[in-house]
Specification:
alpha+beta, globular, six-stranded mixed beta sheet, Beta Polymerase, domain 2
């Protein structure tokens, strides 16, 4: 039974976490909650940091990715490599780290939601991630990776982490050069600059309307 003292910033956060919990319980996978939600400081824009331990194959991963809903955006982190990034239409986003082990240090300030002795392995020397693929996680072009940074930076900014938002913005502007976008005129203001960049990416790369709706919802928060 899912019964933990977690301070949810939205009903969507609660529904997503319960969905992943139910999947992991069904498949006997250990599940650990980390980050702002585990530490009761999450906002409605905060992502959900999860570690999953256990044997999970490609078909199970496909099922897990869409267990809550079909994500609008998917990608892998680059530093560190291999963590799944999933963003859903209600702007719930998760960093899903599928591992073979976890360290004692990582368990500090975390909540162990599910623990199975055969896969809850503590290893303080090396982080080993599961090398599995999914039909929902194709190789992404550079512009798509820039979109991922755009979403991450915007949600960090809206969560009150303004300095971190500007750090993402600076990284995004550097990546525009590799996309041959060098003619944009910026106002050196996070909210206006991020919308200018999104509008150009949306036009240049024919992004789908679901992604536009995702960002439009976030941009409306700028005007509140």
């Amino acid at each position: 039974m899912f019964n933990f003292k977690i301070k949810y910033p939205s009903s969507s956060h609660k529904n997503f976490l319960e969905s992943v919990y139910n999947f992991c319980e069904k498949n006997q996978l250990s599940l650990i909650l980390k980050g702002s939600l585990a530490n009761s400081v999450a906002t409605k824009f905060s992502d959900i940091d999860l570690i999953v331990l256990g044997d999970i194959n490609e078909s199970q991963l496909d099922e897990l990715i869409i267990y809550y809903d079909t994500p609008i955006m998917t990608n892998f982190t680059e530093n560190p490599k291999g963590i799944l990034i999933l963003v859903y239409k209600d702007n719930i986003s998760t960093d899903l780290d599928i591992r073979k082990s976890i360290s004692e240090k990582e368990l500090v300030d975390s909540i162990v939601l599910l623990k199975y002795d055969d896969n809850f392995i503590i290893n303080n020397e090396e982080i080993i991630r599961k090398d599995i693929t999914s039909k929902y996680m194709p190789n992404r072009p550079d512009y798509y990776k820039t979109m991922r940074l755009l979403h991450k930076g915007t949600t960090k900014y809206l969560s009150g982490k303004v300095d971190l938002g500007y750090k993402f913005l600076a990284e995004i502007k550097e990546k525009l050069i590799t996309l041959d976008i060098t003619d944009l005129e910026f106002e050196n203001n996070f909210e206006s600059d991020i919308e200018i960049i999104f509008n150009r990416l949306y036009t240049n790369f024919n992004l789908n309307v679901e992604i536009k709706a995702l960002f439009d919802t976030l941009f409306k928060e700028f005007k509140r």
